[in-house]
Amino acid sequence: MRDERPLSHVSGSVLALLAAGLALQIGLHAAVPQPRAKGADLMPPPATTLLRLASLGEPIALAKILMLRLQAFDYQSGSKVPYKDLDYARVEAWLARILELDPKGQYPLLAASRLYAEVPDEARQRRMLDFVYRQFLLDPNRRWPWLAHATFLAKHRLKDMDLALKYAAALHTYITATDVPAWASTMEIFIREDLNELETARVMIGGLLASGRITDSAELNFLDGRLREIEERLKQGGPRKR
């Protein structure tokens, strides 16, 4: 066995030197600032053609990896970058690239509408909602949930009824799939009712009922009841419903 000397046999000067070295190391570590992530550190995405080449024939897999990296960007170097500090032009560019790699992917639009659009910054909120709107127009029957949420945010968070009406009208106009819930394509009706556009709302409900697009009995009964209510309000002079 190896001979081991007890600590008491080490000279005081050596111990003092070791203690001083340890204290110096701790002090230097505390004095050197830790690397801090900044929102501006998010780089612009490469061109789509380069990303497709880099994917080696697996663009969907690369899209998922890029989405994870983008969402994890705010956590790096032991610090958290608030979403509101990110360069939203670059965030939008990354989300668009990811959707180009995986057009059927839903997560980029979920992140846009439920993460990046929830920051307490109106300009950034509007940018993300407009991004969701433009992406919805490219594939309405698949991407409608995110524009429906954008409509809700425009109405209740931004208090912008004109913007909410624009989004709701797009849902009503461009959704053609029969498996989309009726509430998504009828949001325009109720926003117009909130805006006291009762005659327009009445015509829209009547047309929807006559079109045969609504087949669920509960939805039919609900719309029929709403139609009767609007007609009664029109007879009474159309006071706005609260």
Short description:
The protein has 242 residues and is an all-alpha fold.
Summary keywords:
242 residues; mainly alpha; two-stranded antiparallel ribbon; 2 strands
Describe this structure in words.
With 242 residues, the chain is mainly alpha-helical. The protein is 64% helix and 2% strand. The chain is built from twelve helices and two strands; from the N terminus they run αααββααααααααα. The protein has helices at residues 12-31, 48-54, 59-71, 88-101, 107-114, 122-138, 140-156, 161-174, 182-185, 187-194, 198-211, 217-235, and strands at 75-76, 79-80. The protein has a two-stranded antiparallel sheet with strand order 1-2. Strand 1 (75-76) and strand 2 (79-80) form a beta hairpin. Helix 4 (88-101) runs parallel beside helix 6 and helix 8 (161-174) runs antiparallel to helix 10. The protein starts with 11 loop residues before the first helix and ends in a 7-residue tail after the last helix. The model is unreliable at 28-35 (pLDDT under 50).
